[in-house]
Fold each of these.
Amino acid sequence: MDLTFSAAERAFEQEVRDYIASSLTPEMKRATALTPSVFSDPDIGMAWQRALHKKGWGAPGWPVEHGGPDWTPAQRWIFEAECARAGVPNVNVMGVKMVGPVIIGFGSPEQQNFYLPRILSGEDYWCQGYSEPGSGSDLSSLKTRAVRDGDDYIINGTKIWTTHAHHANRMFALVRTSDGARQQDGISFILIDMKTPGITTRPILTIGGDHEVNQVFFDDVRVPVANRVGEEGKGWTYGKYLLEFERGSGIASAKLREALKTIADLAESDVTGRAIDDPDIAIRMSEAEVDIDALEMTELRVLSALQTGQNPGAVSSLIKLRVSEIRQAVTRLGVDVIGQDGLAVEAARPFYRLNHEPAIPEELLPVVPEYLNGRAYTIFGGSSEIQRDIIAKMVLGL
Amino acid sequence: MDLTLSDEQRLLRESADRFVAETFTSDHRKKTANDPLGYSSAIWKQFAELGWLALPISEAHGGLGGGAIEVGLLMEAFGRGLVSEPFLSTVVIGAALVAECGTEAQQQAILPKVAEGALTLAFAHSERAARFDLAHVDTTATKTADGWRLSGSKIAVLDGAAANQIIVSARIANANGASGKLALFLVPAGTSGLTLRDYARLGGGRGCNLDLRNVQLPADALLGDGQDALPAIETVVDRAMAALGAEAVGIMQTLLDTTLEYTKIRKQFGRPLSANQVIRHRLADVAMQVDEARSMALRAALMANAEPVARGRAASGAKAKIGKCARFVAEQAVQLHGAMGVTEELDIGAYFKRLLTFDTLFGGSAHHYRRHAALSGRVHA
């Protein structure tokens, strides 16, 4: 057993570091640091996606024949860790990490040839049509319906919590094409052009003051049957496959470590009156760091299992749960670190392009919104309660 | 980067698991509970035959040259069986102190004997006034014409009464009365001036408090050649905490397994306890904390030979985190067993108590989060 990377892996790490240094602009870095929502806005995020694509690193998890870089699990780890360390933009994962793998796994050759290059290049911007007002954790109870009409489906219904629907030109959605014996039956996986007539988008502001999510309405929206991925009625299987990616895509410890470092730097700075001198803050900083250490080791155990061809198993639910809880602990620590400057609300967005001088130092602006928006971490992608259900069933066999 | 076990390590784990499962039964534990030694010398001999006592000792001194990972594998198995043999005090701590501090002659005299099971050791370091500060030692060692004179009091000496030799820390008194370096002394059992107050240790095994009144020792009782012993003590205690962390993981895993089984079998309101979501979620949390503890114990073992600050941060991080997890897991195991959990009729209580011991030894979570923060430059120690 050994925690160190090989000489070749070290060389790769240096290559990643060098490429990031040469392609990450100060504007991208500043914009990322001042963005309190999950994903960077598309102008920032897609600029970074293009930079990665130029180098052939646009989709680390994809197979080579579709443009993946053919990295080992260790290389992917190193890449993610270096990206986190450098503070690169948080590219919306809906394309590369979510719909991409489903199209690769279950899409037709035509679909693969059309969509995958456009995901890689950042030409298409995707959003996910899963949740509905009546279907949150109980996702398969969804009611948005696609009725066959010749070579088209006609879609009616509504999707909610749709991240970046207001930026996206495409949506992948789970829709009901028939009523089966179980509510998981009769769901299909459909790719929708957001410019199709009959689609309207309503913004939803989250408590941190950001517009990241939306409600999307479908009124007689006509979508070609050719846009269905895989078999009709098998969408739940594909959707679950994708959720596994959403939960397991996590090499999260490096990002959490960076988030903690940002808070620690603030705590050690005069801008917070050296919050670190409060022993309670200092201890909580150590508690959070140790939690991140434990998470990192768990992630490395998974990585090590993957490298030797073993199945890491249901541990992804375990990781999802801890990542969300630790992230919330770090953002809460941030609020306590900045103290009374947290009282100031800055409503304008984005923070990196304000037309006025903010009332508090710029670097403090995202701290409270991050905490407030961060309450969603234990809710989206399967709430913590759902994760515990999964652990009880899959890990403990209950 | 590879966290999978080698074939040899897998073999070690399998044989340890098997031996522990067959030997350290509930009945065995009840028998040794009243044993004045606190463990079985016959089993100790078997440990030697299996090569376990030689495991972390260098090959030059009759050992197998294993490291913290191998020790962790054994300790995790020991945790599953609540083993009370003095492996930690003799091999993980005692032999390691001799290896770190001892002269070559001392190492040759002691380590091969430990490896073959012919010598047991204990470490007398903690003092009441020190709490968990490893540098705080009031026991004094004064140079005499033909050796040393030790005076002071020690607490929480693990397996002290069973040890053939006790390694005692003392501060060397300078001629002007000012205190000097920290030093370690080999004190044979039964030395005049040594008083032991032996007790049954919470969770199995034995411990003692120790008084030293003008204990006269020969010059070669001093371990090493006069270097300050504190860095070696910190090294060995950090590694001992990693080993204890692995033992705690074994204990926690057993509590989880046992509790899972129980909640499946126990029926109330016409269905198993495990059918209730509140119970399922609690068990999910227990499983998660066992897994986090496992990661931290592994991390501390992998960092056992790192430079002192990194090693100390890993060891204290592990001790703090595993301690927190241990309390939660232990308390939930009792809670989910209902009233039976608080009786001596189940094993749950014994495992619970051993975990309480873990969280107490060398300082609890609060102490180690503080040490972690100090080593990270966040607070002053």
Amino acid sequence: MGKTLQKIKVSTVKEMPKNLGKTVTIGSQEIALFHLANGEFRAIENRCPHKGGVLVEGIVSGDHVFCPMHDWKISVKNGKVQKPDNGCVKTFNVEIENGDVYIVL
Amino acid sequence: MAKQKLALIGNGMAGVRCIEEILKIQPEMFEVTVFGSEPHPNYDRIQLSNVLQGATTIDDITINDWNWYKENNITLFSGETVMNIDMAKQIIYSDTNREVEYDQLILATGSIPFILPIKGADKKGVTAFRNIEDCEKMIEYSKSNKKAAVIGGGLLGLEAARGLLNLGMQVEVIHLSEYLMDRQLDPTAGKMLQRELESQGMNFHLGKQTQEVLGEIDVKGLRFSDGDEISADLVVMAVGIKPNVQMAQKCGIPVNRGIIVDDYMQTRIPNIFAVGECAEHREMVYGLVAPLYEQGKVLAKRICGMEGKAYEGSVLSTKLKISGVDVFSAGEIFEDEQAKSIKEFNEWNGTYKKVMIRNGRISGAVLFGDTTESNNLLSMINKNAEVSEYLEVGASEGPSVSLVTTMSNEDIICGCNGVTKGDIMTAIESNGLTSIEEVKGCTSASRSCGGCKPLVGDILEMTLGADFSESNQKESICTCTTLSRDEVVAEIREKNLTHTREVMNVLGWNTSDGCSKCKPALNYYLGMIHPVEYEDEKESRYVNERLHANIQKDGTFSVVPRMYGGVTNPDQLRKIANVADKYNVKLLKVTGGQRIDLFGVEKEDLPSVWADLDMPSGYAYGKTLRTVKTCVGENFCRFGTQDSIGLGIALEKKFERVGTPHKVKMAVSACPRNCAESGIKDLGVVGVDGAWEIYIGGNGGTHLRAAELLCKVKTSDEVIEITGAYIQHYRETANYLERTSVWVERVGVDSIKAITSDKQKRIELNQRLNEALSVLQEPWKEIIESNAIQTGLFQKVKIPAISNK
């Protein structure tokens, strides 16, 4: 009963400004997709473990996003909440192909 | 002299800590052999709940890595369990038939989790929460299963439940008692904890006894004694632990609940000792790390043949390690005939404090919501302090004074590792330490649960004294740099820097991309310095300013259209009503600034909401002029002496949209009755017969402050000219995020008077402000007309559920 991975096209590189996020809903899963300054794309669960803030609207700096609710700092690479706060959010794999952005579920 | 043979059974925190203590005293005296059933070196079991919660990783919780054993010439047999001890010959036998002789033997076999003896407890998907394997199993299960049930609403159960929530599972917690953590908390604190955890998403089944685990091979659910059932794919049993004493008992070592030891951790058998969770001392078995480390110290001295203090038992204290939940409990917690309590319950803040007093002395405490006093209370409980000492500390303490200043050098700061305030101060002074991490590396304080980090920070601040205050005087704009606001602004002007990234690079930021503090600040300073050339960086703006709406806690937005001077008309009201209907607006509210706020608008609907409103942005989200509040004024009011509405509208039209260090609120009242509340605004105007008074630096919010009179002028035009100079001076000299109330207090109202009363300066300031005003666009209109901005910033992607079987 193994799960098969699915690649879902969610955006294009061109329409996503750097250092900003896009809200992607797949089924009931809400995902924050980020275009980082170094060109990489990263995707994490769009809910801060603190009070459920929408991370997609946070300020992005390097590999981190700052939750717009209470400024928790969260790594968009591994989903970890940075000290002094604790917690983590799910991460999702992102693939780029021919200028299209895919999330792998 | 030949080395003595020392063997340790149990490669966990208590036993290995004891070995560490022994090596500190007598590094060369023993040949040490360690047996451990788990296939890992010694790790910090307490941190497993943080691993599960995702705050740390299994790699990071190792206390003694493989090298440590090598470097200390310790023979380690990991993944090997001792089966028997020949106490006459002094030989131990492992499950691989290994024989090891000993001169002295330490039993530190720890505990085993208690598994309820109920039907189905052996099904696949039932686990305890005790070791790395359990932790890995839960993480694995969470990847393909949704529903978890945790049996046990104690410390461990709740930490496991929080971890499973973080792993994306739905979590049901089943607890036998009527309230949570009933061994550490009273019902009041237990209920507060329940409410907090419910708000985090946990579901509770209290007063429920689990009777059966349902399912065929895999777990499917639970049935309770009252017949109720719930479904579950994973069941975590966290109902308690019991000392792991089976092997000792079999060998004939006297055992009650745990292995019976005296005040020096010696069992009733010569040359055999026991330490940690498996040991029973004065009829107490301890399951928390601090007492175990204390026992380890006593035993180490004993084994090295030194005279040492006897172990006399410990006061139990607990902190719950769930982020956002502060719970502390120590000593006795229930009142009786002799034990009375002092309670403080603040329902508004969600804090609760109960201090127990027996025979006039502090005997226990429960804290919820705010645990800053926990170390202080624990130390009072440990030394059995008189109640007067507690009351004195409470009375003398201002809110900003840290507890550490009132503690004595012997007081324990780090309960887990037994580090005193004096130890930390000595380490800071003799090693020149400056950070919590350095103190941790040097003294072990905050190495285990980390709860004492704030206190360690306070001690650093207290000990470094002058050095600390010196570095505080120059306040850097954030931790990415050591430069102050004035230095950064001067460098931008001097070096003609034009982008935030350029500022960070040229001025040597210690991060490559800044943080949520410096990015918006630099964006503001650059825009203030180069008003025409600078292109505002949307990604350096806080979400509200980037999307031109106010984010709400559920991720929706609120929309406030501009109504100059708080004056509206039937046409505007009809449009607002139509939009509210069309977009299913959840709440319509009149704001404190005399505007109408539409709540609950989805991000992707914002551009069309604005298009339908066809009104300018009210900038309710901006670091700019928010509103000019006005009273009715001379046209209707029988007391009005001036046209307050007219002046208010003129001010708002003139100064709207220009960026300021923080929000700016204004008001115009037509008489000293001051119905528009001009006395608590960043700039307030009050009409008197034939003149206007201008007040500055008022605040009605967090920094309640009455505005001070700046000057009195005759005409509306003069009000606008003075206001322009004042705003521009504020823009040029205040720190980003510094309200005028703070700024006016810092620079002094007289210095501002000197500027605004100087005609030449006034003209120049207004010229610079007009330049900045000249390039501003109405933001909602700009977005409505730009497909690129709508796609990049406002559109969400929605993909229907995918089948994934």
